[in-house]
Known about the structure:
Strand content: 15-25%
Largest sheet: 4 strands, mixed
Main location: membrane
Keywords: Cell membrane, Cytoplasm, Membrane, SH3-binding
Subcellular location: Cell membrane; Cytoplasm, Cytosol
Radius of gyration: 15 Å
Strand order of the largest sheet: 2-1-3-4
Mean pLDDT: 94
Number of helices: 5
CATH topology: Glutaredoxin
CATH superfamily: Glutaredoxin
Number of strands: 4
CATH class: Alpha Beta
Number of domains: 1
Protein name: SH3 domain-binding glutamic acid-rich-like protein
Shape: elongated
GO molecular function: protein-RNA adaptor activity; SH3 domain binding; ubiquitin-like ligase-substrate adaptor activity
Helix content: 40-55%
Amino acid sequence: MVIRVYIASSSGSTAIKKQQQDVLGFLEANKIEFEEKDIAANEENRKWMRENVPEESRPVSGNPLPPRIFNDSRYLGDYEAFFEARENNAVYAFLGLTAPPGSKEAEALAKQQA
Length: 114
């Protein structure tokens, strides 16, 4: 399983830049392996991302904007979905990964199962 984060290296939007940095920074800080896919510098990445964001997750008009997160080819969500998972200490579940022992998410899961 490979976590793929689709980003735009040359976005004019400060909000998009901040969201991308937030996702990438969290993954790096928690030592979660991922691939960064730049849709601004690589047409294939842009095309693949746009084709693989499900219809219900697309904007009413225009194309889906980064950051978009996938586990292999399975669409996980956008920044809002990631942020909600992070707020609920459920990022590993959101990413389809097992939470490491000692993490807040693993502790919460252990309490639920007890």
